[in-house]
Amino acid sequence: ADYIPILTETPSDLFGVVIVTKDGKVYSAGDVDYQFSIQSVSKPFTAALVMTQQGPAVLKEKIGVEPTGMAFNSKLALAVYENSVNPLVNAGAIAAVSLVQATSEQERSNKVQQNLSDFAGRPLAVLEKVYESEYSTAFGNRGIANLLYNWGRLYSDPEEALRVYTRECSVGVSAKDLGMMGATLANGGVNPLTKKQVMPAKHVPELLAVMATAGFYDESGDWMFTAGLPAKTGVGGGIVAVVPGRFAIAAFSPRLNEAGNSVRSLKAIRDIAGEL
Ligand code: GLU
């Protein structure tokens, strides 16, 4: 993803794949401990936080749950936002952080980061260089945040929402972390390692529904047709897919296709899902 300058420095040949079962067993191969930025894979987990704090109706009414069928950073999708925003595209994800209940930017950012850590079952940290690189070039996302605010569809100061959103995208994870985060969803919202109930079990199906319809951006239909699993991708090269009630499959490989999805991660997860 060369629009975030520092991501061009990631070695392109890294590749790791991991399965984490709902009881925390880990099966892995390749570069599964390499730290990369979570990017959009953070989005469903912050949507989960909004649902945990305020219920699914708030997510549906204040953000939306329709797949856009357009690129993740599309301004065109925004122009018809009323029926084409969901928490897994940039507009909806920036709105999601603005909905997190907090009295300061620091608190908002901490809550978002703590929630990601709770899903992973270990403390995650922001990769500051990635944050600096993305925030200093975030003109498109700044435009999106300001437009949403203008329409009354952003619920905090727009620049604050942009910063908190960019920080969440810059959180460092490994493929193993993504596997554990997915396994928490496979396990009804309970982290397999810490046993913490990170989100209510009753809202996991609603979250997986949004991942099924919009997790692969404008390739979501193709993904569901060929792999059939709720999943989320990020331009850092990570993907996590969830087999509800059983396990998660996560992978990491930096090279992306046109839609912004990791080519090898996509193929590896699809093949493993087929085998199993
Ligand atoms: N931080 C990235 C952006 O806002 C996330 C995109 C992605 O991973 O799809 O453009």
Features of the shown structure:
alpha+beta, five-stranded antiparallel β-sheet, two-stranded antiparallel sheet, 7 strands, globular, binds glutamic acid
Explain what you see.
This protein has 276 residues and is of the alpha+beta class. It contains 12 helices and 7 strands. The protein has helices at 43-54, 56-63, 75-79, 90-99, 105-120, 128-135, 139-150, 158-169, 175-186, 204-214, 220-226, 263-275; strands at residues 16-21, 26-30, 36-37, 172-173, 231-233, 238-243, 247-252. It has a 5-stranded antiparallel sheet with strand order 2-1-7-6-5, sandwiched between helices. Strands 3-4 form a two-stranded antiparallel ribbon. Helix 1 (43-54) packs across helix 2 (56-63) and helix 4 (90-99) crosses helix 7. It is globular. 55% of the residues are buried. The model has no long low-confidence stretch (mean pLDDT 94). Glutamic acid is lined by residues 39-40, 72-73, 90, 134, 141, 169, 234-235, 260.
